[in-house]
Amino acid sequence: MAYPDGHVGWLVTGHAQARAVLADPRFSSRYELLHFPLPGFEELGALPPAPVGDMSGVDAPEHTRYRRLLAGKFTVRRMRLLTERTERIAADHLDALRRGGPTADLVRDYAQPVPAVVICELLGVPYADRDSFAGHAVTVTDVEAPLADRGAAYTALQEYVAGLVRTKRAAPTDDVLSDLTGTDLTDEELAGVGTFLLGAGLDTTANMIALGTFALLRHPDQLDVLRTDPSSVDSAVEELMRYLSIPHTGVRSALVDVELDGRLIAAGETVTLSLQAANRDPLRFPDPDALDLRRNAAGHLSFGHGAHQCLGQQLARVEMRVAFPALLRGLPSLRLAVPAEDVPLRPDHQGIHGVRRLPVSWDEP
Fold this sequence. Notes:
Layout: E1 10-12, H1 15-23, E2 27-28, H2 62-71, H3 76-100, E3 103-105, H4 106-111, H5 113-123, H6 130-140, H7 147-170, H8 176-180, H9 187-218, H10 220-228, H11 233-244, E4 249-254, E5 258-260, E6 263-265, E7 270-274, H12 275-279, H13 313-330, E8 335-336, E9 359-361
Parallel strand pairs: 1-7
Antiparallel strand pairs: 2-4, 3-9, 4-7, 5-6, 8-9
Helix pairs in contact: 3-5, 3-13, 5-6, 5-9, 6-7, 7-9, 9-13, 11-13
């Protein structure tokens, strides 16, 4: 496969082959070794190393150190508490939707703010700061915002998280950042990890809630499954993850020569993983283009696989298991307010697939 910068590497589309690459330490995630398949990066030249705290762009042993420190922070107890808080957060936003109805942009009014407030809970952002913090977080991921505004919002978030780290060191509370102040991470590393968790946990979940709702509204038979059978929510979330595959592309670089499926991938060559294609591989998922909420979609690659598998996947599942049923219960007549073909999608070159806006309407009581 030819990359935008002229590099010639590989494209992997099969589920078994993508899983093999993701699990193989001979393939590196280091940004400075990668050639990106999406347009726009070629103008930047060689990419710099990952910022401090960004676990996605480093390999072992640095990645192992971060992951070991973070893995124990997503405990069953914390997930249970966050489930209860997510239920309250979703209910509050649905109340606001109904008050402002009977139309809304579901991205702006539900899909983005719910995970933004949950991230505030996870990181221990004080209540008084949450509107400002969440506003900056949403701006950073807004593909329609001017680049200067997104850059300014990112800088503001970094500065805020750095200050929050200092506050947590002085007076810890019951949250992930406070827990991490008891490790050997420096203030710079803590601030980097906090910013990384924000970026990894907000845009992805927000787009899953919005795009997942869009998919359900376009498949009313499947929407009825979720609405009438509450026990289907776990399989529904996994199937929506597989079917939509919003983190659509993975990238790795071969550190040494590797033979994969009878092909020799030479050291230094970049391998692009089409997670969307892998999640619709008919050898792994029969009738893969059908949305079937009763399907056993275990083994999908939307959370990745191997050493870099999404650390916050249980939190993302908590948010989706709450957000979808709450929305369907709270607004039983929910429907698209525009034809499906008029719903604006995010640009193809964005790393996360999703909708920019989702105009919906419902019947007032």
